[in-house]
Design a protein that fits this description.
With 358 residues, the chain is of the alpha/beta class. The protein is built from 12 helices and 15 strands. One of its GO terms (cellular component) is cytoplasm.
Length: 358
């Protein structure tokens, strides 16, 4: 080994010793903050997304490189996740199984030190959080190609849970197998949605290989672990968790495929200054009712970022609308608009004010 290389490695060892010492010093403050939070409110959430967002932003702005700014988020995600686990376990229920895109969204939001509880249905995610068995729940709400997840919207009708945050997760499919050698593939497994999203690629690149549908992309990965002639279309996380090698990355036909997830909780998060508010409301069945109803948002200068409608399931042709606006319910103009809207509709429920994804 050259002296130069040796010298640089010694320098890295010296710096890593300092980083480790500093991480432990940082952890001591986190533990103290955890105690203070519990003194103030024994039931308080320890996870504080507003503070985490401020840390990400401050460090990203300050970074002069060459360490990549994008990586600061990933590194600090894990530092804060591990630190939080010192304040107490963060239990997160999500629509499983492991290694799905919901699991990836969870990791993006809570890091790998949280305690994850994969459950079988969106309804079960809600009930885990309602019963206090998990602090947070993560469910998909909409996808750029497949649209809104109706089941999640429907669950809000009878649930008292609040939206605590949102996560945007890119849906990128990879072809993977045990050996990582394309020539070994005799069969491809995946979830029907993933297969549909990679249809053109499969027809062009593996025209004679049979494709079988299974219950999830994670199940596809599991099947490929034991069968060297099988390949799975699954997430990057699946390749890591199941020890599979990626043969071809990003085989989805539409590379602009994102799913938006909601974080659910019994409590509201702190205001950040970059928040969104979600509301659910229903209107009387008469001409212009929806137009009248939404006018207060415009007159108070509030940007409406989304509106979805669902049949109310209580009365034929009665609809429930789900509306997202920019701003926090503690802001005067948002409060005023919400009061005006409420007076014009059959019922209105605030599903939460939470930090907009950044
Ligand atoms: C330490 C805190 O608690 C948690 C840990 C954080 C950290 O490691 O910096 C930041 C926010 C919280 O999710 C805090 O609220 O400041």
């Amino acid at each position: 080994m050259s002296d130069d290389l040796q010298g640089h490695r010694q320098e890295i060892d010296r710096i890593d010793d300092q980083i480790l010492r500093l991480l432990n010093e940082r952890s001591k403050s986190v533990i103290e903050i955890g105690k203070l939070k519990k003194q103030r409110d024994a039931e308080a959430h320890l996870h504080t997304p507003a503070r985490e967002a401020a840390i990400f932003e401050r460090l990203s702005k300050q970074n002069t490189g060459p360490f990549p700014t994008d990586a600061i988020r990933a590194v600090y995600r894990e530092i804060m996740s591990a630190s939080l686990s010192l304040e107490g376990p963060q239990k997160v229920a999500y629509l499983g199984p492991r290694a799905t895109f919901t699991h990836m969204a969870c990791m993006q939001k809570f890091g790998s030190s949280a305690q994850y509880i994969p459950v079988n249905s969106i309804k079960d995610v809600f009930s885990e959080v309602e019963r206090g068995r998990a602090h947070f729940g993560v469910v998909p709400i909409e996808n750029t190609t497949e649209g809104v997840v109706n089941h999640t919207l429907d669950m809000f009708v009878d649930s008292s849970l609040l939206i605590y945050g949102e996560v945007l997760q890119e849906v990128a499919h990879h072809l993977m197998s045990k050996s990582g050698v394309a020539g070994d593939i005799k069969r491809v497994y995946s979830h029907p949605h993933a297969i549909a999203q990679c249809r053109n690629w499969l027809e062009t690149n593996l025209p004679h290989v049979p494709v079988s549908e299974v219950a999830s992309t994670a199940r596809a990965a599991e099947l490929s672990v034991d069968d060297p002639s099988a390949a799975a279309i699954a997430s990057e996380l699946a390749s890591q968790l199941y020890g599979l090698k990626v043969i071809t990355a990003r085989i989805e036909d539409n590379i602009n495929n994102f799913t938006r997830f909601l974080v659910l909780s019994q409590k509201a998060p702190e205001r950040t200054g970059r928040d969104k508010t979600s509301l659910m409301l229903s209107v009387k069945d008469k001409v212009g009712a929806l137009y009248d109803l939404l006018r207060p948002f415009a007159s108070h200068g509030l940007n409406m970022t989304k509106i979805e409608s669902r049949p109310s399931r209580r009365k034929a042709w009665e609809y429930i609308f789900f509306v997202d606006i920019e701003g926090h319910i503690d802001e005067e103009r948002v409060k005023k608009a919400a009061e005006e809207v409420k007076s014009r509709c059959l019922f209105m429920k605030i599903l939460g004010s939470y930090p907009a994804y950044s």
